[in-house]
TrEMBL record:
The keyword Transferase applies. It catalyses: ATP + protein L-histidine = ADP + protein N-phospho-L-histidine. It is an enzyme of class 2 (transferase). It comes from Curtobacterium pusillum. Residues 208-267 form the Signal transduction histidine kinase subgroup 3 dimerisation and phosphoacceptor domain. The keyword Cell inner membrane does not apply. The lineage of its organism: Bacteria, Bacillati, Actinomycetota, Actinomycetes, Micrococcales. GO terms for cellular component: membrane. InterPro entries: DUF7134, HATPase_C_sf, Sensor_HK_TwoCompSys, Sig_transdc_His_kin_sub3_dim/P. Residues 12-163 form the DUF7134 domain. Keywords: ATP-binding, Kinase, Membrane, Nucleotide-binding, Phosphoprotein, Transferase, Transmembrane, Transmembrane helix, Two-component regulatory system. The chain crosses the membrane at residues 12-34, 83-102, 109-129, 141-164. This is histidine kinase. Its EC number is 2.7.13.3. GO terms for molecular function: ATP binding; phosphorelay sensor kinase activity; protein dimerization activity.
C-alpha cells in the first residue's frame, strides 16, 4: 500500500487535544529547577520545544525542523544542555512511528547526526557526564556512544512499534477483506436464490400459459366440430345419417377429453407423448363436420419431432377451427401442406362473409407464440373476403409422428 506523502497529517480532534496537553505538560517539565548542571531554558526555547511536541504527529517534518533549529540556536549561543533537549527524543521516536517512509529515514539520520553532535558539544562544554572521556579508554568510548545510542535506541523503538502497528493493520485489512468477501458471497447466494425463484415463477407462468394455449386449441377445435355437427342434426331426415353424426360428436368429445388429459398430465410429468392425431385425421374431422375441404400435399412428408409435430397439429387444428367458426357457410376450405428441406408450411384459406370476422384473440396469439418459440412464423390476412393463414414450422429432432 502506498504511503501518503503529505506535509500535514489529518488527525482527529481528540488526538490534537491530547498532543497539545502533552506539549503543555512538557513545557512545565522543561521549566523545573532540576540541578543536573542543566541550565534553565529560555521561554522561547520552551515554546519551541513544546510546539515541536504538539506537532510531532500532525507534521513530523515540521517537528524535526523545529528541534534541529532549536539545537543549532543552543550551540550557536553557547548555551549548556537543558531539559528542552528531551524534545529531540520525543520527536524522533514519534516520527519513526507515524511518519512517512521519507520521514522515518530522516528521523534515523537525525538521531545519528544529533547524537554525534551532542557528544562533541558536551565534550567541548565540559559537561560533567563526559569526564569519563579522560578516564579509561573503554569507559571513554561508552561515554562518547551514550548520546548516539540513546537517540538511535529511541528511533529503533519507534520503528519496531511502527512494524507492529503495520502488522496489526494488515491483519485488520485482511479480516475486513474476508468479511467483505463473506458478505459479498452471502449477497451473491441470496441473489442467486432470488434469481432461481424468479426463474421458477417464470417457468410456472410459462407452463400455465402453454397449458392454457393447448387446452384452448384442443377444446376449441373439438367444440367447433361438435357444434357444427349438432347444428346439422335438426335438418337431417335420414336416421342412419343422424346416428353417424351422433357417433362423430361422441368420438370428437372423447378425443378431446383424452387430449386434455394428456396436456394436464405433463404438469407432473405423468403425461405420455401419445400422438394426439395426425394432420390427415384433423382434416378428416373437419370433413366429418360437413365442411368441404380441398386438401393438397406438396413435397415429401417426413417424420416430425415431438415439438414440431405437436406444433403442426395444434396450429392446423386452430386454423381449421377458425375456418369452421368464421367462414361463410357452405363454402369450401382449402388446406395446403408444403414439405420443404427444413420446414413444413401449412396454409388454410376460407371465404368469410355475412359480417363474420376472420378470427382473432387468444387463438391467433397462441399460434404466433408457439411457432415463434420454435423459430417458425405465423401470418394471417383477409383479401377480397378470403381469410388466408400461413404457418411455417421448422423441423426438430426426429421422433414424432405427423401422418
Amino acid at each position: 500500500m502506498t504511503e501518503r506523502r503529505t506535509f500535514i497529517r489529518p488527525l482527529a480532534t481528540r488526538s490534537i487535544v491530547v498532543d497539545v496537553a502533552w506539549a503543555v505538560f512538557a513545557a512545565f517539565v522543561f521549566l523545573l529547577p532540576i540541578d543536573l548542571e542543566l541550565e534553565h531554558a529560555s521561554p522561547i526555547a520552551v515554546l519551541a520545544a513544546a510546539g515541536a511536541i504538539a506537532l510531532r504527529r500532525v507534521s513530523p517534518s515540521a517537528a524535526m525542523t523545529m528541534v534541529v533549529v532549536l539545537g543549532i540556536v543552543q550551540v550557536g549561543g553557547g548555551e549548556r544542555p537543558s531539559l528542552v533537549d528531551l524534545a529531540m527524543f520525543v520527536v524522533i521516536g514519534t516520527a519513526a512511528v507515524v511518519g512517512t517512509r521519507t520521514e522515518v529515514i530522516a528521523s534515523g539520520l537525525l538521531a545519528f547526526v544529533a547524537g554525534i553532535g551532542a557528544t562533541v558539544y558536551l565534550a567541548l562544554t565540559g559537561f560533567r557526564f563526559l569526564v569519563l572521556l579522560n578516564g579509561p579508554r573503554d569507559q571513554a568510548f561508552l561515554a562518547m556512544a551514550a548520546p548516539v545510542t540513546a537517540l538511535l535506541g529511541v528511533w529503533a523503538g519507534g520503528v519496531a512499534v511502527r512494524a507492529f502497528r503495520s502488522r496489526d493493520r494488515e491483519s485488520e485489512r485482511r479480516a475486513d477483506a474476508e468479511a467483505a468477501a463473506s458478505r459479498a458471497e452471502a449477497v451473491a447466494t441470496e441473489a442467486e436464490a432470488t434469481a432461481t425463484r424468479a426463474i421458477d415463477v417464470a417457468e410456472s407462468e410459462r407452463i400455465r400459459a402453454d397449458i392454457a394455449r393447448d387446452v384452448h386449441d384442443v377444446v376449441g377445435h373439438s367444440l367447433a366440430v361438435i357444434i357444427a355437427q349438432a347444428d346439422s342434426v335438426p335438418f337431417l331426415d335420414d336416421e342412419a345419417r343422424i346416428r353417424e353424426v351422433s357417433a362423430t360428436i361422441a368420438s370428437t368429445a372423447r378425443s378431446s377429453l383424452v387430449e386434455v388429459r394428456q396436456v394436464l398430465g405433463h404438469i407432473d410429468g405423468s403425461g405420455s407423448e401419445t400422438d394426439p392425431g395426425s394432420l390427415d385425421e384433423i382434416v378428416q374431422g373437419i370433413r366429418d363436420a360437413g365442411v368441404d375441404v380441398d386438401h393438397a400435399v406438396r413435397g415429401a412428408p417426413v417424420t416430425l419431432g415431438p415439438d414440431s409435430g405437436t406444433a403442426a397439429r395444434r396450429v392446423l387444428q386452430e386454423m381449421l377451427t377458425n375456418a369452421l367458426r368464421h367462414g361463410a357457410p357452405g363454402m369450401p376450405v382449402t388446406v395446403r401442406e408444403t414439405w420443404r428441406s427444413a420446414d413444413v408450411v401449412l396454409e388454410v384459406e376460407n371465404v368469410v362473409g355475412d359480417g363474420r370476422t376472420a378470427g382473432s384473440g387468444r387463438g391467433v396469439e397462441g399460434m404466433q407464440s408457439r411457432l415463434s418459440a420454435l423459430g417458425g412464423s405465423f401470418d394471417a390476412a383477409v383479401l377480397d373476403d378470403v381469410f388466408a393463414a400461413r404457418a411455417r414450422i421448422p423441423f426438430d429432432v426426429h421422433g414424432g409422428t405427423n401422418r
